[in-house]
């Protein structure tokens, strides 16, 4: 299991697989795993481990 | 010479920075167009996934994105949000908000300064939202800020230039663009800030809570332009007590 944006979910092999499964648009997000930012080019080769804390963020309206 | 707002070498002809919070995505394009804005603020939040609509799909090409660090309670959190925002691939601009007071949403100048020091070194165009304090403003300049963004009144209050005299001190003393942020509720208040010599005005709530959002964006644009023009033109003297005739005082018919 991993923690995605504060909620437990099933682990996938790679970060890209997780993002695809959750229907994220990779051109509209930024990702942090255990506090470390992952470059977009590295999504595919980044493997996930049990207990990883993953944050996926995007822009919203704000002042 | 064209009158430009310059932030770390980036040039803008518009002096109206528009917020994108609290209104529908469908209205963003019209608001930007009517505002004539070239810089739009955004916030960073956890993404919902599931092909949710994204605000970036509604912002025209060529607009400079200014992500804020809202939600940050200290310098470390602001730096983290800024770095994540840059990873989105939309430029190096960041508006620092470091706020731990949830009632008045007043910025923590000390934490703001710490975040500015870190992010300026990392090449960000740092635009710190700050409480108008001269000493802190000097420190922010020395830390590499691209401008300073003092508040007119608490965020979202629409109360206008409650800090007017202190913003004037910053305009007079700090050799950086002074962009009045927060609390500007009416075009007349934006105009007044520009007449004082502010380099730009940032507004969100005043537009987002207006009856007609695109129309209010246009009203702000005109007011900001009027204020800038009048500042550049230079004001005439104020006459204390009495009057000074505008028409000639000779050639009256009764002489």
What does this entry look like structurally?
Chain A contains one helix and five strands. Chain A is mainly beta and 63 residues long. Chain A has a single domain (2-57), classed as Roll (Ubiquitin-like (UB roll)). In chain A, strands 2-1-5-3-4 form a five-stranded mixed β-sheet, with no helix packed on it. In chain A, strand 3 and strand 4 form a beta hairpin. The longest helix of chain A is centred in the first third of the chain and has 7 residues, at 15-21. Chain A starts with a strand and ends with a strand. The mean pLDDT of chain A is 94. Chain B has 255 residues and is of the alpha/beta class. Chain B has a single domain (5-233), classed as TIM Barrel (Alpha-Beta Barrel), CATH 3.20.20.70. Chain B has eight helices and ten strands. Chain B has helices spanning 25-35, 75-87, 109-121, 134-143, 164-173, 187-195, 205-208, 213-233; strands spanning 5-7, 10-12, 16-18, 39-46, 64-67, 93-96, 125-130, 149-150, 179-180, 200-203. Chain B has a five-stranded parallel β-sheet with strand order 5-4-3-10-9. Chain B has a three-stranded parallel β-sheet with strand order 6-7-8. A two-stranded antiparallel sheet of chain B has the order 1-2. Chain B starts with a strand and ends in a 22-residue tail after the last helix. The relative contact order of chain B is 0.14. The model of chain B has no long low-confidence stretch (mean pLDDT 95). Strand 5 of chain A pairs antiparallel with strand 4 of chain B.
């Amino acid at each position: 299991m991993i923690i995605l944006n504060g909620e437990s979910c099933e682990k996938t092999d790679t970060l890209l697989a997780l993002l695809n499964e959750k229907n994220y648009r990779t051109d509209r997000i930024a990702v942090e795993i255990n506090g470390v930012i992952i470059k977009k080019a590295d999504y595919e080769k980044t493997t996930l481990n049990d207990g990883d804390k993953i944050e996926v963020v995007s822009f919203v309206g704000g002042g | 010479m064209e009158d430009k707002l310059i932030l770390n070498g980036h040039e803008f002809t518009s002096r109206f920075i528009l917020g994108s919070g609290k209104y529908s995505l469908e209205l963003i394009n019209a608001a930007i167009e009517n505002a004539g804005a070239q810089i739009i603020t955004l916030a960073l939040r956890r993404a919902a996934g599931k092909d949710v609509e994204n605000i970036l799909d509604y912002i025209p090409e060529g607009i400079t994105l200014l992500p804020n660090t809202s939600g940050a309670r200290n310098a470390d959190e602001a730096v983290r949000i800024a770095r994540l925002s840059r990873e989105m691939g939309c430029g190096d601009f960041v508006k620092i908000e470091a706020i731990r007071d949830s009632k008045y949403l007043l910025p923590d100048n000390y934490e703001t300064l710490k975040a500015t020091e870190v992010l300026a070194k990392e090449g960000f165009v740092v635009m710190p939202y700050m409480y108008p304090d001269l000493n802190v403003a000097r420190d922010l300049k020395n830390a590499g800020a691209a401008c300073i963004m003092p508040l007119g009144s608490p965020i979202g209050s629409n109360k206008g230039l409650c800090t007017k005299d202190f913003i004037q001190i910053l305009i007079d003393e700090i050799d950086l663009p002074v962009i009045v942020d927060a609390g500007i509720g009416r075009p007349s208040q934006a105009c007044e800030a520009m007449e004082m010599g502010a380099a730009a005005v940032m507004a969100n709530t005043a537009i987002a809570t207006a009856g007609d959002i695109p129309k209010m964006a246009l009203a702000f644009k005109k007011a900001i332009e009027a204020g800038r023009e009048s500042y550049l033109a230079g004001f005439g003297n104020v006459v204390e007590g009495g009057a000074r005739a505008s028409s000639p005082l000779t050639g009256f018919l009764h002489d």
